[in-house]
Amino acid sequence: MSTTVSSEQCIKASPAQVYYAFTHAIALHEWLCDFATVAARPGGRMYLWWHGDFYSAGEYVSLEENKSVVFKWFGRGDPAPSEVAVSIEEKDGGMRITLSHTVPDGKDWETRAKGFKAEWDSTLPNLASVLETGLDRRIFDRPMLGINISDFSPEIARALGVPVTQGTRIDSPLETMGAYKAGLRKDDVLVQFNGKPITNDFGSLVTALQGKKGGDEVEVVFYRGPEKKTVIMELSKRPVPEIPWQPAELARQVRAKYDESLAALEQCFQGVTEAEADHEPAAGEWSAKQTLAHLIQTERNWIANLDDVVGGYERLADDWGGNLPAHINATLMAYKNVRGLLAELKRLANEAVAFLAALPPEFVARKCSYYQAAWQMLEAQSHTFSHVEQIKSAIAAAHK
Questions:
Q1: Average pLDDT, stretch 383-399?
Q2: Cβ(183)–Cβ(221) under 8 Å?
Q3: How many angstroms separate the CA atoms of 5 and 7, rounded?
Q4: Which pTM was predicted?
């Protein structure tokens, strides 16, 4: 005996788009989970993970292209696997998805079945949003702190005088949003948010924001150097950025942002000698040229990320190793001087813009992937501008 619960969702999309959403890790990540790795064939893996460390370690049972997907679900804490069957049918010019989750017999499983239905009922509308509009409601319904973050290591903690090694370091707070208004500034290290501990794992911030909305007030605990501080922050509502849906127009807008950021960088080095650009303000602090090397590495990563998402396969990583001094200095040595570093940044900008202009129609049709890629590239130069003052300060320190 077994128990089956079902959820339905109508979506204005093609059968191929719906099928893709259940059979590709990058698509599952966009609407269902926070990490996925899959092999969409009978017996192939289907591992799904969420912030907070819930996971399902299952496998595909059967697949009929653009019509049905059946997979085993084995969630953390489940006593045994259960089975999910997804059928895709045309209805009123769109698709009707019927998702049936079958569990073994037993009182405990009855309770679990009700939980599965509630979760699928609340999750499938996000699949519709992702396929129809490109918006992942998990992101856009979540409030914002209004910060850019950077790496945080024991070495950085010592340099800042912070007495902890777990936390999230602020790179730059956005002046119009809650974090800045609450008094948070660059190099503050968040250690507690909404009563929940914040670690070096970005997911700890995501988990702490669950259940909150724009306008809510939360308590934030952070370190500024050795001093521990507590403030009340009002969370900001997350705006929905407008993006162009034509690759040529996207490329044009990104080109304008590159031109602005590259001009700002060139202005920083007007009349600056190589010795001044090589000056490190203090132990562990980047010189102006090392910051340029970091920006080169970041631009390479933007292009690599775009390559991943267009190709449909994200690179897998357990974490990020931070900004490696050996790599920063290797990039610096490869281009030798300010002129060479700036020239490489210009070449990378040209490459990124050309890539955007050439995005294929089938990628644009994957609305969530395209939306997130376009959004990222339109916002990418905010990272460059966040380092302009750092460059100016490093050069000024060389004059002292």
A1: 94
A2: no
A3: 7
A4: 0.85
